[in-house]
Design a protein that fits this description.
Layout lengths: L7 E5 L9 E5 L12 E4 L2 E3 L1 H6 L5 E7 L3 H4 L7 E6 L17 E2 L10 H15 L9 H9 L11 H5 L4 E2 L1
Parallel strand pairs: 3-6
Antiparallel strand pairs: 1-2, 3-4, 5-6, 7-8
Helix pairs in contact: 3-4
């Protein structure tokens, strides 16, 4: 509704799954106290914003916004009223609707990580730069065996980023 109807302010307090419902205000806040939310009626039954959020868009036939409905709904309508009407059954042959969605997610950036041989060489260089008398943690033999791929159990060269992450995922 944000951006579609003038006078509605909506914002999302959290991105946490299950707690990501948007709060919205019609004409701002007209009352103070514990209940300063807009009145939401789905098929003339008062519901919370959580119920409205979970209502599938395909089930809505129409909705209306009453900016100031205190004459009809009393003080509960002072912050505006949203009237939502859901679709109902109709006489005639059955009509079946089907909708499917699929999303493919891929990383927007790929991390550039040094391979094991480069990392060992850079680590040795960092140690000797700080103290030239320190021993290098990785011997030249270990670096050469890792680079040659000799005995992969003793000298592993695993690309953990590639092993632990997927290139894309579907939902």
């Amino acid at each position: 509704m944000q951006g579609k109807i003038a006078g509605i302010v909506s914002f999302q307090r959290s991105g946490e799954p299950g707690a990501d419902n948007a709060d919205f205000f019609i004409r701002g806040v007209g009352t103070f106290g514990a209940n300063n939310r807009s009145l939401i009626l789905i098929d003339n039954i008062e519901v919370s914003a959580d119920v409205l959020t979970r209502l599938p868009v395909d089930d809505i036939e129409n909705f209306s916004i009453l900016w100031d409905a205190t004459a009809v709904y009393g003080s509960r309508g002072a912050n505006g009223v949203m009237l939502v009407t859901t679709k109902t059954g109709r006489e005639g042959s059955a009509k079946i609707s089907f909708r499917t969605e699929q999303r493919i997610s891929t990383p927007t950036q790929k991390l550039k990580i040094a391979d094991p041989v480069t990392w060992m060489k850079m680590f040795n260089e960092a140690v000797t730069t700080r103290n030239p008398l320190d021993l290098e943690p990785y011997s030249q033999a270990k670096i050469e065996n890792t680079q040659a791929g000799n005995a992969p159990i003793a000298y592993p060269a695993v690309d953990w980023l590639n092993e632990l992450t997927r290139q894309s995922t579907t939902t």
